[in-house]
Amino acid sequence: MSLDATRLAAVISPLRRALLAAARDRENLPDIADAQIEVMRALPRGTVASPSGLAQTLGLGRSTISNLLASMERAGLVTRRARTDDRRQVDVAASDEALGYFDRFDRASAAIVADAAASLSPEDRVALEAAVPALERLRDALVEQRRLANDEGAA
User: Fold this and answer.
1) Which of 28, 43, 62, 112 gets the highest tally of CB atoms within 10 A of its CB?
2) What are the CB-based long-range contacts (under 8 Å, 24+) for 99-103?
3) Which domains does the chain have, with CATH numbers?
């Protein structure tokens, strides 16, 4: 059996958009861009990261992450503070407001997926359960490919 990469790619994007829209509707969440959600996912409660660390984690260019953080700070989704040990360096943290949105989004998304999965056959639910680890590894591989491409572009 060979992977139909075209078919998989054609499913992933609409699936993500449908889930995002359904979660926003269910929780009456603001329209937060996907990239901003990924930044918030990389900044769980109680953590801080540098902009360059976020760029590397997310496989984004430094200018992209800088623009994202600036817009997120204006929207009250992140805070940026100079480090006490080196005032030239900045730590970024998700705001309490952003963490609240993110918690609501995750709860709603999980409930939506569970409800939709319950309407599938038992065989489909088993297949989805088995696919999750492979999809996580696929996500990690895609992020790594992007990070490597950004590193090569910066060199």
Assistant:
1) 43
2) 99/40, 99/45, 101/29, 101/30, 101/32, 101/40, 101/77, 102/37, 102/40, 102/41
3) 5-154 (1.10.10.10)
The one-letter code for the residue type at 62 is R
Q: What percent of the chain has pLDDT over 70?
A: 97
Contact 58, 42 (CB under 8 A): yes
Integer Rg of the chain from CA? 18
CA dihedral 146, 80, 49, 34 (to 10 degrees): -40
d(CA 109, CA 118): 14
State the amino acid at position 63 in one-letter form. Answer: S
Assign 1 a pLDDT band (cuts: 50, 70, 90): low
Predicted TM-score (pTM) of this structure: 0.75
